[in-house]
Amino acid sequence: MHIRKAVSADLNALVQFNQAMALETENKQLDNACLTAGVRAVLDSQDKGFYLVAEVAGEIVGSLMVTFEWSDWRNGTFWWVQSVYIVPEHRRKGIYSALYREVQTLSEDQPNVCGYRLYVEKDNLTAQRTYQALGMEETHYLMFEASKSN
């Protein structure tokens, strides 16, 4: 297995993974043009974040995205792990763990990183156990969301 930062040539795989993840976790079909532009925006701007991909035998089999959130309470930046997807036949083989460890390794050179966060579907107990096994703890926060009306 090889973990690396994603590059523009990975765009189609990342879009496909995001589509598959949204369908699997929320039964939601994402607008392909909007999603493609969103993935491209991250690939083109390190200020927004970055993607990591996991390859096995030259094939991309998993990915995640990291975005940044400033914490005034900690005077530091949380790295948010998002858009996690592992191809079903490659799950439970340590691919997510390897991706997460790479996130931690990359943050070692970033003195302002104060921690890592992610959100997970309430019913996805398998993922929750994985995150706990990697040392993450459930917080006492609930997430709320409102869409901006255009």
Structure report:
With 150 residues, this protein is of the alpha+beta class. It has one domain (2-133): Gcn5-related N-acetyltransferase (GNAT) (Aminopeptidase, 3-Layer(aba) Sandwich), CATH 3.40.630. The protein has 4 helices and 5 strands, in the order E-H-H-E-E-E-H-E-H. It has a 5-stranded mixed beta sheet with strand order 1-2-3-4-5. This is GNAT family N-acetyltransferase. Residues 1-150 form the N-acetyltransferase domain.
The ordered string of helix (H) and strand (E) elements is: EHHEEEHEH
How would a crystallographer describe the biggest sheet? 5 strands, mixed
What is the gyration radius calculated from CA atoms?
15 Å
CATH class: Alpha Beta
Spatial strand order of the main sheet: 1-2-3-4-5
Low-confidence stretches: none
The total of helices stands at 4
The helicity comes to 25-40%
Q: Report the CATH architecture.
A: 3-Layer(aba) Sandwich
Number of strands: 5
Mean pLDDT: 95
Q: How many domain regions?
A: 1
Structural class: alpha+beta
Let me know the CATH homologous superfamily.
Gcn5-related N-acetyltransferase (GNAT)
Organism: Fluctibacter halophilus
InterPro entries: Acyl_CoA_acyltransferase, GNAT_dom
Pfam family, one: Acetyltransf_1
Protein name: GNAT family N-acetyltransferase
Summary?
With 150 residues, this protein is of the alpha+beta class.
Features:
GNAT family N-acetyltransferase; 150 residues; alpha+beta; 5-stranded mixed sheet; 4 helices; GNAT_dom; Acyl_CoA_acyltransferase; Aminopeptidase
